[in-house]
Amino acid sequence: MSGKLIIVGTGPGNPDQTTPQAIAAIEASSVFFGYGPYLDRLTLRDDQRRVASDNREELARAKDALHTAASGEKVCVVSGGDPGVFAMAAAVCEAIEAGPPAWRALDVEIVPGVTAMLAVAARAGAPLGHDFCAISLSDNLKPWTVIEQRLRAVASAGLVIALYNPISKARPWQLGTAFAILREVLPWGTPVIFGRAAGRPDEAITVVSLADADAATADMATCVIIGSPETRIIEREGMAPLVYSPRSTGGAK
Amino acid sequence: MSGKLIIVGTGPGNPDQTTPQAIAAIEASSVFFGYGPYLDRLTLRDDQRRVASDNREELARAKDALHTAASGEKVCVVSGGDPGVFAMAAAVCEAIEAGPPAWRALDVEIVPGVTAMLAVAARAGAPLGHDFCAISLSDNLKPWTVIEQRLRAVASAGLVIALYNPISKARPWQLGTAFAILREVLPWGTPVIFGRAAGRPDEAITVVSLADADAATADMATCVIIGSPETRIIEREGMAPLVYSPRSTGGAK
């Protein structure tokens, strides 16, 4: 079998944050599967074909991509950020496990990228400077009770929290409820960072206290980082503050 | 003040995984501070100066770098991986907060990179495909009791765990104890990935069950990923298995 499937992370959206490995993988592929806006970021040649799909059709897209690779094509599945973080790599693995034996024999490669929380953290200081976690607020694929339980557990244990998929038209209330839960566990002065489109021309980084965190500040392109009880803010005259989590800790809350 | 301090993440060590933004930042800097082996990866010009230090001297290095930037130099602080993940960005912020007011007025920029857990995950499948956390096993700067409490909390809540700084000469027993703690909370069949030097010529990716996980498999260049109870292994004939955490979950353990 001569087909190949490569799952590429293009980074947060600033071309300067896309790795040479990702660029080379894109140049070597012939058919591209992905969410339309991610495919729009690529500059493809006339001999390269794109198959755009909606961002809620990940498993169907993974199956289509595997079918195409199994037919002998060089297939590229495109994710923004890193393909292994709430993105296409897991969807492709699910499809392989449930699919025909031929899919297990395919040459599958995954190219990592800079994921959103790292790009947001870099613009804000070092909020992920100590133990942290990444949690998706999407309850399409897990019950909300699990999300709530996880938020309480990690906040109580003193981890910084990066929230992916914080809000969407189909998911309007979850982020506000998450803030309400975290206000029961964390000091109200804990810094919260809304990081929208980090590194892109339309970037917006907002730092507020947990008390003042308003879900309406976030949109689909936002990664929200909630500090631990030890996360600090350094004010700077005429410049954005630096938010950081010290490398040392006395103990969890 | 014309000085500048830029904190750069060079990625996991494969030059193809260093972003163009990091390369440009390195080219524009005149004095480089960092752990010797990270500086050794750079190709510097004759007019660029390097100041190497030991990997346990992060705060002193941050202060030296800030002093030099405040004197008007273009200073680059170099981290492997991402500078915001258990690396120099937090140390620089700590030094700024405790330092003279002039340091707060400095132009400070942080360039993100592909952090080790993403590079390891990409080589193993999609083990970070659902909620996950990153915890440092270094107890230089936090009490071991806090680490133990965090491990129990996140494993019980169903998060995948990436362990940074798992082992060193000064830290010989912590990883073995971490496995023992996790065996009290997680199914013994949970996949464990030892990812050494991912993406580099001396790469070694090993997948075992939690029951068989042996701390001696890790060294200082290893990132250890421990699955959640839902993490799965897809066996493939003649190829390494794919380890992945499904996007959906029925509930935490």
TrEMBL record, chains A, B:
<dbReference type="GO" id="GO:0009236">
    <property type="term" value="P:cobalamin biosynthetic process"/>
</dbReference>
<dbReference type="InterPro" id="IPR014776">
    <property type="entry name" value="4pyrrole_Mease_sub2"/>
</dbReference>
<dbReference type="Pfam" id="PF00590">
    <property type="entry name" value="TP_methylase"/>
</dbReference>
<keyword id="KW-0489">Methyltransferase</keyword>
<dbReference type="InterPro" id="IPR051810">
    <property type="entry name" value="Precorrin_MeTrfase"/>
</dbReference>
<dbReference type="GO" id="GO:0030789">
    <property type="term" value="F:precorrin-3B C17-methyltransferase activity"/>
</dbReference>
<feature type="domain" description="Tetrapyrrole methylase">
    <location>
        <begin position="4"/>
        <end position="213"/>
    </location>
</feature>
<dbReference type="InterPro" id="IPR035996">
    <property type="entry name" value="4pyrrol_Methylase_sf"/>
</dbReference>
<dbReference type="GO" id="GO:0032259">
    <property type="term" value="P:methylation"/>
</dbReference>
<protein>
    <submittedName>
        <fullName>Precorrin-3B C17-methyltransferase</fullName>
        <ecNumber>2.1.1.131</ecNumber>
    </submittedName>
</protein>
<keyword id="KW-0169">Cobalamin biosynthesis</keyword>
<dbReference type="InterPro" id="IPR014777">
    <property type="entry name" value="4pyrrole_Mease_sub1"/>
</dbReference>
<dbReference type="InterPro" id="IPR006363">
    <property type="entry name" value="Cbl_synth_CobJ/CibH_dom"/>
</dbReference>
<dbReference type="InterPro" id="IPR000878">
    <property type="entry name" value="4pyrrol_Mease"/>
</dbReference>
<keyword id="KW-0949">S-adenosyl-L-methionine</keyword>
<comment type="pathway">
    <text>Cofactor biosynthesis; adenosylcobalamin biosynthesis.</text>
</comment>
<keyword id="KW-0808">Transferase</keyword>
